[in-house]
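User: quick one, fold this
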Amino acid sequence: MMKTPVPAEPMGALPLVTGTTPHSTPDDAEMRRWVRRAQEGDVDAFERLYRSLKGRVYALCLRMTADEQEAEERLQDTFVRAWERLHQFRGDARFSTWLHRVAVNVILEARRSAGRRAGREFTSDRLEAYGHAAVRSLPGTRVDLERAIAGLPDGARQVLVLRDVQGYAYREIAEITGVTLGTVKAQIHRARALVQKALDR
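Assistant:
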């Protein structure tokens, strides 16, 4: 497959997201058509993908970073990375699944390079617009859960979101985060315990 040429400013045709709103997701056939056109260098087709999927990607970024400004930055970084590596998408999985993996890697790379400590609190009102399920295995209201998850240490929050919100398998999380399977399981167990402790207060 021919490598997609990357414009000097690949996000030039894509507006900066400051208040994302959900868009209806196209069916799989339409999505595949847009992806093929984008892989051939069609920026308009890529913009359609962006507008259709930005809400879901932003929600993932917000859950993993617990910071609205950083989530918006990682959203933009994700689509820049996706445009640059679009030729690597082979269609073995849904494009949205591939894009989520890109987003997770972008977030983890940014955290490793910045060496920043997270754990900020955020309200869940912006997440409500996307209709993503809360952590079903834990009791408590949605707002309580979101705040408890936001208060987790970086690593614990990331693996909990990947497992209990995004539904990744333990082995997939290990591959994404670059840690051992045993460490992933231990982190998720610890994260759930911390969330439960926060809800019991």
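User: anything notable?
Assistant: Residues 1-23, 116-137 have pLDDT under 50 and may be disordered.
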